[in-house]
Design brief:
By secondary structure, this protein is mainly α. 57% of the residues lie in helices and 11% in strands.
Length: 109
């Protein structure tokens, strides 16, 4: 049985997590997606995508409580799992294969 395909938004969220590395939690993911795509991103959509990706085993999260002297709020940080990295690699290869040979068609307008 084949694996579920990554949705476009899930793919983007995973790439944002990869870009942010150890600083990846919901707010920076939203801001990174907005910065790179130039589109407004609903925080709720990111929360939902993160939970769905975690359920699929493609990301993992841990709640980090700030130290007593730093103040601030607890944050749920996320990172890609080895399976998540593999899925991104597969998606990249698939898209690259699909793009092969279509440039001349695009250039024709």
């Amino acid at each position: 049985m084949g694996r579920d395909l990554l949705g476009e938004f899930e793919h983007q969220v995973m790439l944002a997590i990869l870009r942010l590395r150890e600083d990846a939690y919901s707010v920076p993911v939203v801001l990174e997606l907005e910065r790179v795509t130039g589109r407004e991103v609903a925080p709720a959509a990111v929360y939902i995508a993160l939970r769905r990706l975690e359920k699929k085993g493609l990301v993992r999260s841990d709640l980090r409580v700030p130290s007593d002297d730093s103040g601030g709020r607890s944050r749920r940080y996320v990172e890609l799992t080895p399976d998540g990295l593999e899925r991104l690699r597969e998606a990249r290869q698939t898209l690259a294969a699909l793009w092969e040979g279509v440039e001349p068609v695009l250039d024709q307008g």
